[in-house]
Design goal:
five-stranded parallel β-sheet, two-stranded antiparallel sheet, 8 helices, globular, transferase, Cytidylate_Kinase-2
């Protein structure tokens, strides 16, 4: 079987989906599309849905891609032509560890998250704010997991290959299997 050409990598924030999706896109020679880069505008401003959906639609018009991101309200659009959904589903403890490590690294490095936006994580934003991605991860971990369990069991998605990876070892095995 040929490797799929249209893949959506999903998982809660901090799960490692972006790192995995970039690796997968590189390995398959497909464009990497990051939904957060399509959504976030300069100064941490959110895109309105029509603008966001238009950018997403343009990105998905390519013949192949590895799409990184959840954004439940885009499911019909992104899963219309998807061939595979890969769910990075690590434990809450592992996910939090990774999210905290990432937040600390980004806070101290000052790296821009999406080119041209000027958006950077700060210690204050990551750890001491209501907008904290860590707080968001804690509040949404269970509901995200429940949503993907339901989606993976949904018979309307039976035509889509679904892969659930629950550990870093499973990620590595999956990537090796594509060679």
């Amino acid at each position: 079987m040929d490797a799929p050409r249209r893949i959506n990598v999903v998982g809660t924030s901090g799960s490692g989906k972006s790192t995995f999706a970039r690796r997968l896109a590189h390995q398959l020679g497909q464009p990497y599309v990051e939904m957060d880069a399509l959504f976030w505008r300069p100064g941490w401003q959110e895109s309105d849905d029509p603008s966001f959906f238009a950018r997403l639609q343009r990105a998905l018009a390519q013949p192949g891609w590895v799409l990184d991101g959840n954004y439940q309200r885009t499911a019909a659009m992104k899963w219309r032509d998807v061939q595979m959904i890969v769910w990075i589903d690590y434990s809450l403890i592992r996910t939090l560890y990774q999210a905290i490590s990432r937040a600390l690294r980004r806070s101290f490095s000052g790296e821009e998250l999406w080119p041209g936006t000027g958006n950077r994580e700060s210690f204050r934003r990551s750890f001491l704010s209501r907008d904290s991605i860590l707080l968001w991860t804690l509040k949404n971990f269970r509901s995200n997991r429940r949503r993907y369990v339901e989606a993976f069991a949904d018979p309307r998605l039976a035509h889509i290959q679904r892969v659930r990876l629950r550990s870093p070892a499973a990620v590595e095995t999956f990537l090796l299997s594509l060679h």
